[in-house]
Amino acid sequence: MVIGDGAVAAAFAALAPFRTGDRLTVIGPGSAQLGRGLAYADHPPDAPWRDGYLLNSPAGTVDPAFPDWVAERWPEVAARKARHPRGTAFDADAVAAEDHAALFLPRAVFGDYLRDRTDAALAAHHERGVRVTLRPAIVTDLALDRGRFRLTLSDGQQMQADSVDVATGGPAPARFGADTGPAAFEQLYGNEAAIAASLRPDALRPDAEVLCLGANAAMLDVMRLMQCLLPEDRIRMAVLSPSGLLPEPLIWTRPRGAPVTPDLHGPYPDAAAFLAAVDADLAAHRAKGARMAELRRGYRAYLDQVGLAALIPDIDERRRVIGPLDRRFRRGTADSLADFDRLSHAGQIRIIRANVDYVVAGADRTTRVRVTGPEGPSDLSAPIVINCAGPDPQAYELMTAGLIARGWIERIGQGLRVGAGLETRIPGLRYLSPAVTEIGDEVMALPLYDVDRLTTYVRRASRAT
Ligand SMILES: Cc1cc2nc3c(=O)[nH]c(=O)nc-3n(C[C@H](O)[C@H](O)[C@H](O)COP(=O)(O)OP(=O)(O)OC[C@H]3O[C@@H](n4cnc5c(N)ncnc54)[C@H](O)[C@@H]3O)c2cc1C
Questions:
Q1: How many CA atoms, within 13 angstroms, populate the side-chain half-sphere of residue 209?
Q2: 269 FRET partner, CA 20 to 30 A, in 5, 138, 293, 352?
Q3: How confident is the model at residue 363 (pLDDT cuts 50, 70, 90)?
Q4: What residues pair up with 369 in beta bridges, in sequence order?
């Protein structure tokens, strides 16, 4: 049994070693489109924003086989990409060179790719005599019942299973108060039609700003959504961010820049010493012209090869690295960041450096946001407010929260720990989501918000089974 419908659930379903006569049931609200999940969701074909959201890194980094899949369908993919008003604005050179690996492609198109691969894997299971069922439902409870698992579904039905893989996704975005006012959206995804209705020219003053709470990747998606819905000169955004910092674009040049080789000399006594050495090393590589693409690739390969344990022997200190290191390697969609920069310079987008304290209903169907910036507290009011905060490590969805509450999965600091084969404390129950920060002996140096890494860990675990 697999619970979830995203990329990780698809990998569990595709890679598990089944035998003839086995049954595989995948349960998730979008299981008919297994693989897409939240990140690579599709939208109605006539929705102007269907292909608006882009992958956060070039096609070649999300999956090594994706660029070839794109090349085989290029006219169709090019047409999908061109549906966005800025879809052809950035990469004429890469397109002319047929360098599909360097492109930032729509996430919905990557979802098509994941579905293609998953469908092929499920068909192969079927041919081998495995009975495959996709159930469009939510699992509301998972319990142990006389040595087997008992699942309760949102439609009230119960099912039994001998083994269960849980892949229900990462924590939800941080929230800002219970009463979020009449025109505030707890998140962008899934609310696009309502946001589009609020953005209609007859519903919005021409100079009205959309207020984004946070400058996470979702904020760039809000901008891309607005580009689909409004003439560009009508776009007005205010972005609340405590640091005011944005991610750095991950640009694959032609020819590719060589990944850097970190010049670190561990072991380090603690996380602070390690991070200081990383900062000095990054500065040295940047001085020689390296950018995020070369830095990130080099560090990823180095950390995989050397291992964080060899660099920081103390496990408690190792556990302190993940958040700070992630801030040094934040990467974002180059196309979106370039547009963000352009619209900021045109005065259409402004960043306000402040913390959000709370959000309440304001007057005249607006939403009021209390913020605290360098000059102290103040109030902002906007007709549309969208939560674009990063994940709140405490905001686990139902299934993960249940596993933690039962003590079946271990919480470590701000993350979760599973065994080397993704096993939990209960035999037959495996778990993987972007919230996992430790797998077996490995303490993650960088978070698992990365489809390629997640599927790699499922592949390793499935091989070992
Ligand atoms: C908006 C967004 C954009 C992203 N963009 C990128 C990117 O460009 N590149 C990249 O590498 N990574 C990206 N990520 C990171 C992403 O989290 C991973 O790449 C990967 O897609 C995570 O897959 P998942 O299956 O763990 O989670 P999800 O895609 O979140 O899927 C989990 C699914 O489980 C289902 N589910 C939840 N609870 C239950 C339940 N109780 N019963 C049944 N089903 C349930 C949910 O409906 C959900 O669809 C993005 C993430 C988000 C949220």
A1: 18
A2: 293
A3: confident
A4: 359, 380
Query: Rounded to 5 degrees, what angle do the CA atoms 275, 455, 327 make?
Result: 25
Mutate to test the pocket of ligand 1, among 139, 449, 453 (most ligand atoms within 8 A of CB): 449
Instruction: Look at residue 464 in the predicted model and tell me its pLDDT.
Output: 67
- For residue 225, the CA-to-ligand 1 centroid distance in Å is 20
Query: Does a cis peptide bond (omega within 30 degrees of 0) precede residue 267?
Result: yes
CA 395 to chain centre: 15
Identify the residues whose C-beta falls under 6 Å from ligand 1.
3-9, 27-30, 37-39, 55-57, 62, 107, 138-139, 167-170, 189, 397-399, 433-434, 449-451, 454
CB atoms within 10 A of CB 63: 18
Residue range 75-86, pLDDT digits in tens? 999 999 999 999
Q: How many Å lie between the centroid of ligand 1 and the Cα of residue 6?
A: 5
Say if CB 31 and CB 42 are below 8 A apart. Answer: no
Between CA 68 and CA 70 the distance in angstroms is 5
Count Cβ atoms within 10 A of the Cβ of residue 85 and give its class: 0-12 exposed, 13-18 middle, 19 or more buried.
middle
The average pLDDT across 430-441 equals 97
Q: What is the DSSP string of 88-141?
A: TSS-HHHHHTT-GGG---BHHHHHHHHHHHHHHHHHHHHHTT-EEEEE---EEE
Q: Which atom of ligand 1 lies closest to the CA of 27?
A: 43
* Residue-level pLDDT at 67: 98
pLDDT digits (tens, 9 = 90+) for 154-177: 999 999 999 999 999 998 888 876
With contact defined as beta carbons under 8 Å apart, do 356 and 176 qualify?
Answer: yes
* pTM to 2 decimal places: 0.96
Q: Tell the burial category of 376 from Cβ atoms under 10 Å away from its Cβ (0-12, 13-18, 19+).
A: exposed
